[in-house]
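pinned: reference chain
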Amino acid sequence: SEQSRAIVGAIAALGQSLGIATTAEGVETQAQLEWVLAEGCTEVQGYFFSPPCPAGDIPRLMVFMPPGGAKSTYVSVCFPPWFMGRRKRRNVILATYASGLARKHGRRARSIVKQAAYRAIFDCGLSPETQAADAWSLSNDNDFLAGGIRSGITGFRADLIVVDDPIKGREEAESKLIRDKTWDEYQDSIRTRLKP
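pinned: its structure tokens
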């Protein structure tokens, strides 16, 4: 339909303007594949390639991609706004090895929800009351909080917790002390923030 074409085109244009890939889901035929590629989508998934896995079968998801594979863009920047836009009262915590990196991802995610296309698709947008890069809200009562994994994220409950790059680099990864501290903070603080 014309409305579907307009929505797909707007999303692809938004992704292109932000310099990120756009994935079309639910592609079932060769004709649909050709159509979404012509509209500007850069990635495609659906029955045409493989049947989906029921969401209930994935209580926890780990994403592993090589350096430069856009994992942070997909998981930390694009996914939280999509997750928050779909329903009301769904909070997100994003934790990384350092608060500065978490703020950077939060700023990029916030830039998505500021877009007119986002408001048109999800019927909500950035709340004028809270707009900090690491703590912002949507007009549909959803909140986003970002911080370093060892910064003591407390006092906030979440429906989704994204842990992206919990350890800075090889030197820290090889340090048993840093690994243990990071694991303990995840177990004692971050994981306990997840709503039942």
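why pinned: Residues 96 and 165 are 5 Å apart (CA to CA). The helical segments are 2-18, 30-38, 71-86, 99-113, 116-122, 170-173, 176-190.
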